[in-house]
């Protein structure tokens, strides 16, 4: 059966050697529909991002570049804001011919504005692993707002695996709008009205009543370093400016990074996985697609109804741009699971963002008003 592989199937792949590890898998590394990837012991600071192309490996490119090699052993190293690093990961792959992969930053990584992408040998696209790929994995890491400390085992991105029967395409097999409307009629995907446009449309919440007068956060430009493995360690006001509600509008300044939230509350069904995708560029010159994976069970309240908002990591591109309360800002694309995970998001281990509203990364202390 095709679809996104579950935690049980990922564990079986690791046991069979399709997922190879330089250190034993850590607790919580296998998520309901993805595998957290871990940084290895070395990082290479490079001048620019790159893709190896069809005939070369990542090491071939690195050998042709000048770079600074850094150790991530022990207490790790500081990855400076604005710099680009390539880090070999502790995981490598020997995939079956009918299994491919797709990567995305983890939720916490996106909320820290760490631009992270997966690279494979002979890769022509970031964040994609071709069916049957055998070889190492690398993370490109570029902190954009804050310098960060990372070390061996730090988890910045995650990998989903898809199985497809012979003869089917290997990309995501998205549910149609008609199928989503039918699902929503049986069990709500969002609270309130369902808007569809090649997926479930999300609208930004900028009204004063939604979050008690604060509609978002903007990253400060000069801050201390953030350790990516420290949870609940940092004061919000040392890193973020709080954005008060102003007539349902927010002007995005080019280059600034914002944390906002959706109007809609979501619930991802147990047999589906979802991914945030950008709306058509014609709706505005801003980006909202950083950390995009939503696991089965995300957002489901005690009664099973939608209870969590989507947090939006937003950056305007070239010019100032006005966002208005309720404006379309992104969409969720859904695809089927190969099987329902044994434990859904929020049921096993620590789930930092279940039931979330407007929430910063787990590294920050809960803000007080």
Layout of secondary structure:
Elements: E1 3-4, H1 7-16, E2 19-21, E3 30-31, E4 34-38, E5 42-46, H2 58-64, E6 68-71, E7 77-79, E8 84-94, E9 99-105, H3 107-111, E10 114-120, E11 128-129, E12 134-143, E13 148-150, E14 155-163, H4 177-186, E15 200-203, E16 214-219, E17 226-227, E18 240-244, E19 249-252, E20 257-266, E21 272-277, E22 286-287, E23 293-294, E24 308-316, E25 321-324, E26 328-336
Parallel strand pairs: 13-17
Antiparallel strand pairs: 1-14, 2-8, 3-4, 4-14, 5-6, 5-8, 7-13, 8-12, 9-11, 9-14, 10-12, 15-26, 16-18, 16-20, 19-25, 20-24, 21-23, 21-26, 22-24
Structural class: mainly beta
The proportion of residues in beta strands is 35-45%
Low-confidence stretches: none
Largest sheet: 6 strands, antiparallel
Q: Characteristics of this structure?
A:
single chain; 369 residues; mainly beta; six-stranded antiparallel sheet; globular
Structure notes:
- The structure is a single chain.
- With 369 residues, this protein is mostly beta strands.
- 9% of the residues lie in helices and 37% in strands.
- The model has no long low-confidence stretch (mean pLDDT 91).
- Strands 1, 3, 4, 9, 11 and 14 form a 6-stranded antiparallel β-sheet that branches.
- The protein has helices at 7-16, 58-64, 107-111, 177-186, and strands at residues 3-4, 19-21, 30-31, 34-38, 42-46, 68-71, 77-79, 84-94, 99-105, 114-120, 128-129, 134-143, 148-150, 155-163, 200-203, 214-219, 226-227, 240-244, 249-252, 257-266, 272-277, 286-287, 293-294, 308-316, 321-324, 328-336.
- The protein has 4 helices and 26 strands.
């Amino acid at each position: 059966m095709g679809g996104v592989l579950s935690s049980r199937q990922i564990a079986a792949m690791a046991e069979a050697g399709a997922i190879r590890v330089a250190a034993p898998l850590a607790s919580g590394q296998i998520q309901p529909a993805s595998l957290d990837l871990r940084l290895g012991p070395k990082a290479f600071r490079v001048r620019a991002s790159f893709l190896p192309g069809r005939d070369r490996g990542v090491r071939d490119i690195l050998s042709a570049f000048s770079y600074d090699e850094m150790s991530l052993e022990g207490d790790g190293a500081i990855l400076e804001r604005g710099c680009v690093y390539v880090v070999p990961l502790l995981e490598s792959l020997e995939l079956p011919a009918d299994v491919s992969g797709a990567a995305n930053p983890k939720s916490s990584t996106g909320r820290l504005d760490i631009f992270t992408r997966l690279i494979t040998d002979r890769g022509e696209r970031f964040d994609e692993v071709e069916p049957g790929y055998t070889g190492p994995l690398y993370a490109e890491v570029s902190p954009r707002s804050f310098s960060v400390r990372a070390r061996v085992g730090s988890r910045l991105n995650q990998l989903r695996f898809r199985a497809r029967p012979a003869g089917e395409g290997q990309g995501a097999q998205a549910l149609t709008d008609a199928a989503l409307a039918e699902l929503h009629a049986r069990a709500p995907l969002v609270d309130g009205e369902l808007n569809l446009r090649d997926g479930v449309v999300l609208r930004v919440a900028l009204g004063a009543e939604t979050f008690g007068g604060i509609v978002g956060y903007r990253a400060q430009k000069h801050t201390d370093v953030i350790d990516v493995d420290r949870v609940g360690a940092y004061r919000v006001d040392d890193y973020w400016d709080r954005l008060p509600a102003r007539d349902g509008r927010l002007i995005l300044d080019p280059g600034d990074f914002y944390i906002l939230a959706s109007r809609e509350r979501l619930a991802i069904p147990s047999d589906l996985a979802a991914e945030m995708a950008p709306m058509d560029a014609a709706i505005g010159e801003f980006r909202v697609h950083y950390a995009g994976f939503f696991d089965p069970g995300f957002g489901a309240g005690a009664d099973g109804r939608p209870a969590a908002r989507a947090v939006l990591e937003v950056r305007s591109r070239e010019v100032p741009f006005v966002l208005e309360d309720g404006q379309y800002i992104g969409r969720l694309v859904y695809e089927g699971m190969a099987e329902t995970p044994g434990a859904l998001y929020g049921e096993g281990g620590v789930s930092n963002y279940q039931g979330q509203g407007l929430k910063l990364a787990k590294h920050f202390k809960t803000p007080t008003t």
